[in-house]
Amino acid sequence: MTIPSTLLELARPRWLSLLVIGLCLGYAIIVLTRVPQWGLPLLALAWIGLGIVFRWGAPDSVSYASPSRRWPWALLPIALWGLYLYLAESFGIVDLSAVFFHLQAGMADHGGVSRIGAAFFYTLSMAALLASFTWLVRHDHRWRRGEPLLALVLLASNPLLYGVGQRGAAIVTKPGAWLERQYVEPILLETPRDPPNLLLMYLESIERTYADRDRFGDAYADLDAIGEHGLVIEGVRQVDNTGWTMAGMIASQCGTPLMPAGLLHDRQFSPLEKVVPGVDCLGDLLSEQGYRLTYMGGASVNFAGKGLFYQGHGFDTVLGREELQPLLDDPEYVNNWGLYDDSLYEFSLEELRRLNAGDAPWGLVSLTIAGHAPHGYPAQACLDHQGEFDGTDILYSVECSAWLARDFLERASAEGLLDNTVVVIASDHLTMRVSAWEQLIQGERDNTFILLGPGIPQGRQQREAAMMDAFPTILEAMGFTIDWHRAGLGVSLLSDEPTLLEEHGKEFFNARMREEIALQERLWEGLAPPRQDPEPEPQEQVVETPEDATGEEPATVQ
Fold first, then answer.
1. Cα(28)–Cα(234) distance, rounded to whole angstroms?
2. In which element (H, E) is residue 104 found?
3. Measuring CA to CA, which residue among 246, 271, 272, 270 is closest to residue 258?
4. Among 52, 249, 343, 430, fewest CB within 10 Å belongs to which?
């Protein structure tokens, strides 16, 4: 059987190279813009059309010179752009600080195995792209002359390298300390006569943006129903360095963004032994007041330093996948990250019963997993309640997370486990790239922040705030008096004091974080081992000779 000459022509290196480059370039445009996925073949064809018009790689006198064996300068810049695109496609927004922090805090026991296939595909695609680009440069002298300039453009335009350069410049120059001057040491001036308990529930990635029923239907309806019995605060934005789980927790419990140790740490990216040891957080303050504190999450506490943070900031009990999975009736009922939320809430009920049996006030912090990008991990209880899950619709998982949270609160309340308890429901951060991404980014986004409990007014409040403001807000909701309604960089949203975002705006605040390191140094104070000054060299003892003696007697003290 003979192969048609057209197919043979398309199989030539020139056309294969142009096709691979066109597909990769089209995919990059789709990831970085709002061009729909069906536009990929059109973009690839447009690139091939340009190749035909300008005869790229064609063996003729205009564009052809003897092939070169040198490697293009642009290979590394292209590979770095491939890394950026992988991160952008995975998370929607590339946060360089998150990359630095996870490298140092630890990435073992994570649940991102679903991205292994994508990483393998990206690796193969990048290998094909680099080979195709190398062929084109070696066989077309015009590309050979121009690609060094292309390499510089790719390096200068890569957001990853821009962020690294900006942070490096801040570390070298150390300009300004505006954030450090705004920081207020959290101090409890007065404590309530009957300190309430605290239940702080983080719902993974369940941002308040989902409450828009025109875009997302009833996915958020159960959280709206919870909010009718308490105070819903709208407008809690996501500033830089608060956009992943540990960063969101630290912002809302310590009143400061999580600025990674990075180059400030003498041991660079060696594993952390402590997490933000230089500041006092919610757990530190409550522990000093005699609270018994527990953290519970379905994922491993070894991932991203969660265990180190809670153990180092006043928590008596820290439970994650390793501790809870053996206690399941079916230890195989887990997902990539760990326990499903229905299992976690059952263990949380047991922990509430244990804590209520004691005499001291208590605090319980929990972190769910159902809403985790890209598709969520709906529990079996949700499948029974909502019907079949198609495996991709994030709104199904949002509805699952909201319904399980409401069910848990209703059961705990029915048992009297939440008497004299302040309940806080919050998203740990805004969600990353999910099936509803295009709808989410159509307008301003904000985090979930709901307060319930004795003395907390019911209603809705619109503020321009950040998760840092949750820290003093929780303290005042519990009845503690704090200086000027402030703690860390946060301002209590139960007061009339303006927040930093209301006074200065989000962009100004983010710019200060990119340019300053004074607050960053405070966060990690004491982390690096003390510097050892070199021991002074022994001095040669000078002995007076008889010739040097004056014959005078030593002076005596009168």
1. 35
2. helix 96-105
3. 246
4. 52
